[in-house]
């Protein structure tokens, strides 16, 4: 085996190990898709951070006007929206978002 063949074989093995693919074509598809997922995750995290900041403004306005920190009716609307859009797992996701945005009640 030549040095080039060995290097190519090692690269293919490493890529297959990272992706779980059995062919280099599948490994390439998986690698590209994972890059897209990572980019989407970065955008989602940014949006969650933006949502947290907006929620803080809402809470501050509510509290400074003498209201409560949490509006349970609004939270039920959010839960329903996520459940309707994403099914039962959407409710868990919404609960996590609500917790991140207002803390535990």
Task: Quickly list its features.
single chain; 105 residues; mainly alpha
Description:
The protein has 105 residues and is mostly helical. It is 84% helix and 0% strand. The chain contains 4 helices and no strands. It is elongated and about 60 Å long. The model has no long low-confidence stretch (mean pLDDT 89).
In the predicted model, the low-confidence regions spanning at least 5 consecutive residues are: none
The average pLDDT score comes to 89
Number of helices: 4
SSE order: HHHH
The biggest sheet, with number of strands, parallel, antiparallel or mixed sense and barrel status, is: none
Helix content: over 70%
Overall radius of gyration:
23 Å
Spatial shape: elongated
Q: Span between N and C termini? A: 65 Å
**Beta-strand segment tally:** 0
Strand content: under 5%
Helix/sheet category: mainly alpha
Short characterization:
By secondary structure, the protein is an all-alpha fold.
Secondary-structure map:
Layout: H1 3-19, H2 24-64, H3 72-86, H4 88-102
Helix pairs in contact: 1-2, 2-4, 3-4
